[in-house]
């Protein structure tokens, strides 16, 4: 069967990877301070303050933990998607993580925020990516060829 998804899967992996990586870099302050360009948080404290608005029923220490888990997950998923390693599982994880974001954002700040941030699109695109049979130009493909 001809793999007609060669370029689309590569672009989708890259787009989703960058979509996860840039907010991580933002909240770590690597992209600059808040108020510059399109910086949303600019530092960890601003990110955790925002996260606490999404989880108002959790204590601040628990919000810190949840923010850390989300950040670690986003970074891991970003790297896996960009390099194309365990792509199917990274895409499923991406879809589940973004669906979780949709639930928290919608119940706490309304449906417009996840729409504005493209979270619905990222969740659906991740699910679609998980169904692509071959990830050309990926570590997965290299490992598959060597077997």
Structure description:
71% of the residues lie in helices and 0% in strands. The two termini are 19 Å apart. Helix 1 (6-27) crosses helix 6 (119-130), helix 3 runs antiparallel to helix 4 and helix 4 (87-109) runs antiparallel to helix 6 (119-130). The protein is mainly alpha-helical and 147 residues long. It has one domain (6-146). The chain has seven helices and no strands.
Kindly report how far apart the N and C termini lie. 19 Å
Summarize the helix and strand pattern as letters. HHHHHHH
Number of domains: 1
Shape: elongated
Total count of strands: 0
Structural class: mainly alpha
Number of helices: 7
Strand content: under 5%
For the residues shown, what is the average pLDDT?
Answer: 95
Radius of gyration: 16 Å
In percent, how helical is the residue content? over 70%
Q: Which segments are poorly predicted (pLDDT under 50) over 5 or more consecutive residues?
A: none
Largest sheet: none
Summary of the model, kept short:
It is built from seven helices and no strands. It has 147 residues and is mostly helical.
What are the main properties of this structure?
147 residues, mainly alpha, 71% helix, elongated
Write the layout of secondary structure elements.
Elements: H1 6-27, H2 44-54, H3 60-83, H4 87-109, H5 112-116, H6 119-130, H7 139-146
Helix pairs in contact: 1-3, 1-6, 2-3, 3-4, 4-6
């Amino acid at each position: 069967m001809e793999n007609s998804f060669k370029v689309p899967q590569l672009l989708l992996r890259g787009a989703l990877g960058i979509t996860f990586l840039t907010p991580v870099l933002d909240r770590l302050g690597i992209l600059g301070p808040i108020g510059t360009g399109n910086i949303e948080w600019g530092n960890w404290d601003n990110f955790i303050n925002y996260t606490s608005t999404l989880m108002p029923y959790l204590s601040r220490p628990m919000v810190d933990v949840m923010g850390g888990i989300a950040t670690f997950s986003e970074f891991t998923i970003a790297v896996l998607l960009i390099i194309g390693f365990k792509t199917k599982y990274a895409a499923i994880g991406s879809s589940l993580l973004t669906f979780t974001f949709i639930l928290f954002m919608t119940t706490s700040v309304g449906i417009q925020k996840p729409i504005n941030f493209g979270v619905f699109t990222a969740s659906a695109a991740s699910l679609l990516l998980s169904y692509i049979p071959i990830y050309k130009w990926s570590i997965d493909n290299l490992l598959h060829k060597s077997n």
